[in-house]
Specification:
Two copies of one chain form a homodimer. Chain A is globular and about 70 Å long. Helix content of chain A is 33%, strand content 19%. By secondary structure, the first copy, chain A, is α/β, with parallel strands linked by helices. The first copy, chain A, has three domains: 302 residues, P-loop containing nucleotide triphosphate hydrolases (Rossmann fold); 118 residues, Domain 2, N(10)-formyltetrahydrofolate synthetase (2-Layer Sandwich), CATH 3.30.1510; 82 residues, Roll (Formyltetrahydrofolate synthetase, domain 3). Chain A has 18 helices and 25 strands. In chain A, strand 18, helix 14 and strand 19 form a beta-alpha-beta unit. At the A-B interface, helix 6, strand 9, helix 9, strand 24 and strand 25 of A face helix 6, strand 9, helix 9, strand 25 and strand 26 of B. Chains A, B: Belongs to the formate--tetrahydrofolate ligase family.
Chain lengths: 556, 556
């Protein structure tokens, strides 16, 4: 089979203006970025406010393993398949981060015959959204340090500055730094650091904002530091809101591209799935729902993090009513969850599949708690056997959930027709019965405990004294009504990445609690969460090139 | 009179595709960024290689003062006026830097009825070129620190790392920093700092590159550090060239916008005019020369720096043959050069104009040395008087140069017709006789001494021992054939910003010499050159905003 890049380069792209026109987006409402990328005006959503929403389908997955589950591939393939069976469908995805492209992984735009294109642009600067977020974040940091330099009228406590800097690059040397060194003219000396741009609270805000006004409200509430009296100092206090919003005026508009089969794709926003909620933008999802019968969307990591946050944070804030969930698994990843090494995944092993399916089953049980119907999509590999498929079906039978094979990687939309039909069946069962898992009225500890108990199946939650103090302060500041955002390893239901499958008899350890007052959630951090990745011994960048004729090498 | 923003917002813009079509740029050769910005494919230059070049006109100025000379305004207005008198003209300008917009100054897109539009986009992210340069620079920094972290196989001397980081923001706290702090996993601890993006050598390279291949050659030669044996370590040694070029694949393409009168404008690249050469890109200028009868271009700061570097660096590398020079002055700025305070510039003062004109006359004498004919353009202000104009004419009479009044600020192209006619007259005098000031065969010291003597009129050059050592090392490394790039205050012919007019009896002090091996020049630093600006007590950012309807406030 051809490589992803070969397939992408051989694709026949429609002019993006033609893709947009089919959705009714014309004239000033479309801003072209070359012939195959565009931004869609926020007026499209406003003007269609009265129209009923299409059906919303979430694609999520079992706990990821190095074997991969193909969540984005399935999302893209399912969207193409829905179009194939006559349902006008838009796929909505997150934008990939630039930095990691130069490290271990390549891009993130699906795979095989289920990709979004132009993949090289999507993986590089795309329409500049992440650069705009980096600029807005950098501006606030510069205004903060300038405020200190100019006399610190707000009496900011130098030991309690929480606003760091960001850059969209894997640069471990910037994790912990000291700024303001040298002469007094260089500002106030203090320790701080950089995170990668996707970890910026502004990224989360961009993805949760329902309008430019809401964006500004959220930006203004961001806490950058505390003053010597312990009061929060916000972006508003630094008079930074308007300028940041100005920098984000285009970034807030959803980006339109297409799949290999010309299905429209909104790719917009990409918040981290650990310290943030890991979903594409509310504005992209909502706009898509006004323009299509079906909207397929995704959430980062496995369903324990991605789906949980999609439901409890994104759907709650945006008042979305999801109609169906697709949970993606591969035979290979289930074998790894069943204890098999990566080198032996090509050998048939029905027992390992059975054991590993415990992970899938727990996710199925969990998803029921949100009252949204579910289908399992097995993303096919050539080495899979019928006996292994049968083992998955048997494991899922107790949950009364159908298991469907998906072969969109090698067949495109055609390989996802069975899945599409199942999704339509679920969506046509009646109006969405969706409910979040917990009420916002619950105390923050109890929200965290509810997720730990109901989703992770932990015996309890242990808060460090530091975390307890932080929770108390958040209550004092008046933010106890916010949903929680769990920052946990993606590899396990527990907070120990080594515990695969469906672990039992463990506790969740909350080490630290952070307030994202602008985004509107309280982050509970379990384990050590890396917000600035590093580069490997041999970075992918070393193998990249572009020829005088524009041929791109090494970006996959 | 209306404000710049009002005028800009009332303008009737043509679709940029229509502007491009008039230049013969159609189809795949044009990449739209919205309806009023576009990138032009490098193939346009390649396909028109055989066509003769249009006439090249440089707009430069006297030494700048806080009173302003209106160089960009004159450039834009002259271009519109040339079109008005039937000469197909393209204006070429530098892209403004994002960071300074949030500090003291507003944008940089001309003024009054001589602006390029859309000014708000040009002043903000534009087409993302500066972000791409920041990314490429950041990638190289990350690869360098990663190399140290992974064992430093190249034996880089930690005390001789010259590659810093950049961000397009005025952020003084980042001037001097320590990175790699905390645990060993965070890289190697060392002191470094950030410059503003326009100071990146990659910016200078982008502006001097004649093709993607030339860009890669220059990128590969950039020196990032020296090893323990004193040998240069380059971007090529870090295997960073291809990935950086990939990040710059779109940034290298000239941007097309238009003036208020729909004259095509290439706005592309914006290197610092102190540690770099301060001109728009070679590719934009060369492409424009193939598409128009007249191309008007600019160079940063006054003619002692901007024009000198335009001739000795840009024209030499690009084999450009400029046909005429417009030197811009205002009565107000000449009065300041004549010793008058900023508060008294509105009062007629013929004596001060006479004294200040010594600055203008020295520039005129200097420009003759490059064998390109010159015209003086007086950028009119309502408070100017005829007696003051006459004083300027008399001062210039010894140089046999015409002095023309320009009123493009309040009249647009119509106000520049006299200037346009004079420019055409100069350009039609015959083929360009342009010559650089010095031969590349001269030793580096002598190149610097030639500029100091012939342009600044210094009595001599004093090199610090450090600078002498650096020059010796550059010779040892084999780079003595490069042109020099003077980094000097823009406010005086001397290296003392307080010496206005035409100072005599001074020496130039070269404190430090830096090698920009990729860009292809040796930077001689006199005085203290700031490569990372700070924000003022009340940053312009504080007054910026955007409404839900998209109205922009505070960006001017």
């Amino acid at each position: 089979m051809k490589t992803d890049v070969q397939i992408a380069q051989e694709a026949t792209l429609n002019p993006i203006a033609a893709v947009a026109e089919k959705l009714g987006i014309t004239g000033e409402k479309l801003e072209l970025y070359g012939n195959h990328k565009a931004k869609v005006s926020l007026s499209v959503l406003k003007e269609n406010q009265a129209k009923p929403d299409g059906k919303l389908v979430l694609v999520t997955a079992i706990n990821p393993t190095p074997a991969g589950e193909g969540k984005t591939t399935t999302n893209v393939g399912l969207s193409m398949a829905l179009n194939k069976i006559g349902k006008k469908t838009i796929t909505t995805l997150r934008e990939p981060s630039l930095g990691p492209c130069f490290g271990v992984k390549g891009g993130a735009a699906g795979g095989g015959y289920a990709q979004v294109i132009p993949m090289e642009d999507i993986n590089l600067h795309f329409t500049g959204d992440f650069h705009a977020i980096t600029s807005a974040h950098s501006l606030l940091a510069a205004l903060l340090d300038n405020h200190l330099h100019q006399g610190n009228a707000l009496q900011i406590d130098l030991n309690r500055i929480v606003w760091r800097r960001v850059v969209d690059m894997n640069d471990r040397a910037l994790r912990n730094i000291t700024v303001g060194q040298g002469s007094k003219a260089n500002g106030v000396e203090r320790e701080t650091g950089f995170d990668i741009t996707v970890a910026s609270e502004i990224m989360a805000i961009l993805c949760l904002a329902s309008s430019l006004t809401d964006l500004k409200d959220r930006l203004s509430r961001m806490i950058v530091a505390y003053d010597v009296a312990g009061e929060a100092v916000t972006a508003k206090d630094l008079e930074a809101t308007g300028a940041m919003a100005l920098l984000l005026k285009d970034a807030i508009k959803p980006n339109l591209v297409q799949t290999l089969e010309n299905t429209p794709a909104f790719i917009h926003g990409g918040p981290f799935a650990n310290i943030a909620h890991g979903c594409n933008s509310v504005l992209a999802t909502k706009t898509a729902l006004k323009l299509a019968d079906y909207v397929v969307t995704e959430a980062g990591f496995g369903a324990d993090l991605g789906a949980e946050k999609f439901f409890n944070i994104k759907c709650r804030y945006a008042e979305l009513k999801p109609n169906a969930v697709v949970i993606v698994a591969t035979v290979r990843a289930l074998k790894m969850n069943g204890g098999i090494e990566k080198t032996k995944l090509s050998e048939e092993n029905v027992t390992a599949v059975k054991i590993g399916s415990a992970n899938l089953v727990q996710h199925l049980e969990n998803l029921k708690k949100f009252k949204v119907p579910v289908v399992v999509a097995i993303n096919k590999f050539p080495t899979d056997t019928e006996a292994e498929f049968e083992a998955i079906r048997q494991a899922c039978s107790s949950e009364a959930v159908n298991v469907v094979l998906s072969d969109v990687f090698s067949q495109g939309g055609e390989g996802g027709v069975e899945l599409a039909n199942e999704v339509v069946k679920l969506c046509e069962m009646g109006p969405s019965q969706f409910e979040p898992l917990y009420s916002l009225e619950l105390p923050l500890e109890e929200k965290i405990e509810t997720i730990a108990r109901e989703i992770y199946r932990a015996d309890g939650v242990i808060f460090t004294p530091e975390a307890k103090n932080q929770l108390e302060e958040i209550v004092t500041l008046g933010f106890d009504h916010l949903p929680v955002c769990m920052a946990k390893t993606q590899y396990s239901f527990s907070d120990d990445a080594a515990l695969l499958g469906a672990p039992k008899d463990f506790k969740i350890h909350v080490k630290e609690v952070r307030l994202s007052a602008g985004a509107g959630f309280v982050v509970a951090i379990t384990g050590s969460i890396m917000t600035m990745p590093g580069l490997p011994k041999v970075p992918a960048a070393n193998g990249m090139d572009i020829t005088e004729d524009g041929e791109i090498i090494g970006l996959s």
